[in-house]
Amino acid sequence: MKITEAEFIISAVRPEQYPEDALPEFALAGRSNVGKSSLINRMIQRKNLARTSSQPGKTQQLNYYRVNQKLYFVDFPGYGYAKVSKVQREQFGQMIETFLGDREPLKMVLLIIDIRHAPSKDDCLMYKWLRHYNIPLTIVTTKADKIPKSQWQKHIKMIKETLEADPHDRVVLFSSETGLGRDELWEVLLSQMEETTENTVASE
Question: PROSITE patterns per the record (predicted)?
Answer without folding.
Answer: G_ENGB
